């Protein structure tokens, strides 16, 4: 799925944000337009800080970074959770990808090159594909 150079870009960006998963995840959710409706139907108190949910999301991205060669196996439990328990609408995933890239670009600025953005877009799309496979 990813070339050696793209894998290097994924790892390089992850190294820059590692340790900041909670604030990046919270900002990701705050940038997602439908976050309050999605979180409210999942039992999250309305308008409360989404930091714990955002942290869990970024921790899952970290798992994917560490298992980039086998996303299906690494994310299978998460795919089951989203499809069968949380029942997250999979149409949210592309928008979350865009929001996450905005967060990366706003924090990393010049360090987040066009090549890195392209690699992360491909990588995050791969995650979304794996997460939606259990819906079928």
TrEMBL record:
GO function term, MF aspect, one: oxygen carrier activity
Pfam families, sorted: Globin (PF00042)
Top-level taxonomic group: Eukaryota
GO BP terms, alphabetized: hydrogen peroxide catabolic process
InterPro entries: Globin (IPR000971), Globin-like_sf (IPR009050), Globin/Proto (IPR012292), Hemoglobin_b (IPR002337), Hemoglobin_oxygen_transport (IPR050056)
Gene3D superfamilies referenced in this protein's UniProt entry, alphabetically: Globins
Globin domain mapped to chain residues: 1-136
Record-stated family: Belongs to the globin family.
Listed PANTHER family: HEMOGLOBIN FAMILY MEMBER (PTHR11442), HEMOGLOBIN SUBUNIT MU (PTHR11442:SF8)
This protein's name: Hemoglobin subunit mu
UniProt organism field: Camelus bactrianus
